[in-house]
Amino acid sequence: MIARPALTSLEARIDASANRLLRSAPATGARARLVEFGVFVLKQAWACVFGATFLAVVLAAKLWYPDDAALARNDALTIAAIAIQVVMVVGRLETLRELRVVVLFHVVGTVMELFKTDVGSWMYAADGVLRIGGVPLYSGFMYAAVGSYMVRVYRLFDLRFSRYPRRWLTAVVAVAIYANFFTHHWIVDLRWVLVAAVVLLWGRTTMHFRFFRGTFRMPLLLAFAGVAVFIWLAENIATYAGAWLYPSQVGGWHPVDVSKLSSWFLLMIVSVVLVTWVYPPREPDRVELSAADKGIAVP
Questions:
Q1: Is 12 within a domain?
Q2: Do residues 207 and 217 touch, judged by C-beta distance below 8 A?
Q3: Which of 53, 217, 275, 279 is deepest in the core (most CB within 10 A)?
């Protein structure tokens, strides 16, 4: 059996303190469900701490960063993103093992940004010196935020998977998805073929997870879709704040088209596959499977 990924030292202390506060919570009834939901929300917020903090900085920069500042806004955002990442590691919110995945997300995202801005898919303000071509360096941190969330949520919710597909097959699909983000500009866009491949490959997979006392489960595809919607909402905030703009938003901001959900859904697959090479998917314990089949929460 693959061991559960350990909490960082800071997270372990927070977890112990939270459990002391929650010991008096009822095990059944409406209050028990409210407690579980509350823990779920707090754990999700904790998993999103990198992305939420950086998004808050981007929004604050739009509202209050002076236009005549000596340091360009884009450079200030890059420095802020680096500072947040340093605090995550030094503060024991992220392990060095996870940092490797986050850095890989950064590289993968930056390569895509260089290409996409070159072909005009979206654009950034032209200020600042901390950039590669037309891409400010903070852009890679937006992809890193997705990676940070993925590796942290895996630990915080003690994720397990039933009928997870073979990892080499998932890697093949992930590579095809990433390639399609580039090749669809010259050949036919295969995104819906790739969506179908994802449904075929992960359609039978069930995700098992913990909030507080209980172990719950849901179809993994539903989890993919939920996170894609969440990222799309964050993208709307980021474009409103001017982190980047699509060509149709240059004349005036408007919500990002819902068609982008398919892109974020497919990007989720690339993210999941990268994370599984650090934290291999684990099967749920037999007692948890038996209890879940009977609708019983396992402490």
A1: no
A2: yes
A3: 275
Range of the domain at 200: 31-293
What stretches of the chain show up as alpha helix (H) in DSSP?
A: 9-22, 30-47, 49-64, 73-90, 96-118, 138-156, 167-183, 191-202, 220-240, 260-276, 286-293
Task: Report the domain count for the chain.
Answer: 1
Per-residue confidence (pLDDT) for residue 289, from 0 to 100: 53
Place of tokens 């007692």: 287
Q: Assess if residue 1 is contained within a domain.
A: no
Q: pLDDT tier at 226 (50, 70, 90 boundaries)?
A: very high
Residue 123 carries which DSSP code?
A: B
* Cβ atoms of residues 46 and 58 within 8 Å: no
The whole-model pTM stands at 0.86
Chain segment 76-119, per-residue pLDDT in tens:
999 999 999 999 988 888 888 788 888 888 999 999 999 999 99
Burial class (CB in 10 A: 0-12, 13-18, 19+), 3: exposed
- Furthest C-alpha separation in the chain: 64
What is the C-alpha to C-alpha distance for residues 256 and 240, in angstroms, rounded to an integer? 10
Among 108, 98, 199, CA closest to 149: 98
Amino acid letter for position 162: S
Q: What is the CA radius of gyration of the chain?
A: 20
Average pLDDT in the 202-227 region? 90
Distance CA 98, CA 88 (A): 11
Taking phi first (over 0 means left), then psi (-120 to 50 degrees means alpha), and beta for anything else, what does residue 166 get? beta
Residue 152, Cβ density class (10 Å: 0-12 exposed, 13-18 middle, ≥19 buried): buried
Rounded Cα–Cα distance for residues 91 and 85 (Å): 10
Residue 296 banded pLDDT, cuts 50, 70, 90: very low
Residue 21 lies in a domain: no
